[in-house]
Structures are given as structure tokens and as C-alpha cells.
């Protein structure tokens, strides 16, 4: 490579890395502020209020417990905080019996790891308990006595827990972003299926099936963000008022999960129906329109579930429910001019998908099924 091209490539790489780093740093400002406040606050409290000299473990315990995450989960914070505190306490306790040294450190670490595995299956918990107990044995004892460090660790863990409870960002944001992306994919699957049906393209129908299967990763991410959001809403005074909304969103997500599963079954059967030319032109147009209408309703449902304003959410939910009800009413083989068995099978597979979506709008299963 000529020198000039090499320099140009290096500069391009540096610019790209700089943009990525700047974006990552700007998105981490809130987390950095939380960690700074937590660590300095824990250190100051242990030093000024408790009178401990250089309470390093208060700061480190709080930082490790809080972790570098935009939305620290309570279980993880508690797991790390308890692991740190237990590790330091176990180290202090064993230190009084064995003293300091390399073989003592090996014994303490071995016992700490086994104790951690006995108490909890989490790898973070085990790592923190073992690491903190090892540091206690290897580092010189503080002036206030061996168990001073245990108290410092408790202070750090409590500060991390308080910060997590009082200063989280809106817990609804990530689940709503995720549900919008997931419903966008479901809408795309339905539109791709409609296009495959109208063009008699079984390969396109197979692509719709692959796309529906690939939604699982998004669904798993949404499920995780829902759990974290409900966890924060339960304990955070600032967001406790959103518990009902998050509960409704979680119920909707469960119905969306079923709808996506049914879309996979439908797409797979659609591939076979196209290959066997199972539908007349009239049936193709009618069923294709039903798929398009369902996709349009999914888009409205997406706007409803991701809306921040309650009035907008109710309005879009009502519209999505009405649109899906109109689709469900016509989902009958005779109405869609379908007479052959494979075509009837497609309709029978689409019906539960629409029912699942109706349930996602807030209807019970019985009320949703009544529209069929």
C-alpha cells in the first residue's frame, strides 16, 4: 500500500474510532455521574460520619455494586453488594484465625469460592466474594480493627442500592423502544407474506419465515427489559406510579410473543400453499388484503404501546382494536372465497394470530375470540 493511502486509511480509522468513542462517552454521562456520586458519597460517609481512616472499601464496594450500566438491576446490585460485603467479612473472620500470608490467602480464597457457590449460583456473586476476601487477607489491616472494612463494604453497598432506587431513568423507555422494534418486524413479516402470496413467490414466503424466526432475539431483549423496568418501578418512589402501565405492557408483550409464534407457523404453511397453487386469484387478493390490514393494525398497535402520553396510547389502542376486529370478522374461508383445504388451513392459522393481537390491545381471550 502506498504511504499516502496508508496515512489516509489510518486517519479514517481514527476518525471512526473517535466518533464511536464520543458517542459511547456521551451516552454514559448519567452512569458516570451516578458512579461518582455513589463512590464519593460512600467514602465521605464512612470517613466523616463513621470516623474510618481511608475507607477505600466503601468507595470500591459502591462502584462495583452499581456497575457501569444505564439501568442497573436491583438483583444485580444486591448480588454484587452482598458478595462484596460477605467477601470482606469472611476475609476479616478468617484473618483473625489464620493471619496473613500466601498460604492463608489460598485457604481464604478456596473457602470463599465454595461458600459463594453454596449461597448463590451467580458468577458475579462468586467472583466478588472471592476477590474481596482475598484483598482483605493480602492488604494490611486498618487502624479501626479488621471488621472496619466489613462496615465500609456495607456502606458502599447501601449507597449503591439507594442510588439505584432514587436515580434511575424512566424504566418505560427501553421496553417501549424494544416493543416498537419488535412490532415493526412483525408488521414486516405480514407485509412480506402478503407480497409473497400476491406474487406467488414461495422464496419470499420463506424469507418471511426466517424473518419471523429472527425476532426471538428481540423478544428475549424485550422480556429482559420488561423485568428490569418492573423491578425499578416497584422500588423507585419516582416511578412507582407507572407500575400499572408496565403491567399492561407486559401482558401485551406476552400476547405479542404468541402472535409472532403463530406468524412463523403461518409463513411456513404459506410456502407450501404457494408451491401447490392452492388459492384462486380472488382468494389470493382477499387473503393478501387481510394480511396488509393486519400489518397496518400492528403499526397502530406499535404506536399505542410505545406512546408516552396516556391519551395518545388509549386512542391508538382503540384504533388498533377496531382495525383488528374488522380483520377478524372477515377471517372465514367463505368470506375470502377460499374453498380448497390448504387455503382453509391458512385462514385457520391466521385467526389465532389476530386473536393474539386483539389480546395485546387489552381484550380478554374470550372477547377477542368473539370477533371471529
From TrEMBL:
It holds the Pfam family FUSC_2. It is found in: Membrane. The keyword Transmembrane helix applies. It is a multi-pass membrane protein. The keyword Manganese does not apply. InterPro entries: Memb_transporter_dom. Keywords: Membrane, Transmembrane, Transmembrane helix. GO terms for cellular component: membrane. Residues 44-163 form the Integral membrane bound transporter domain. It comes from the Bacteria. The chain crosses the membrane at residues 25-46, 101-119, 124-141, 147-167. This is FUSC family protein.
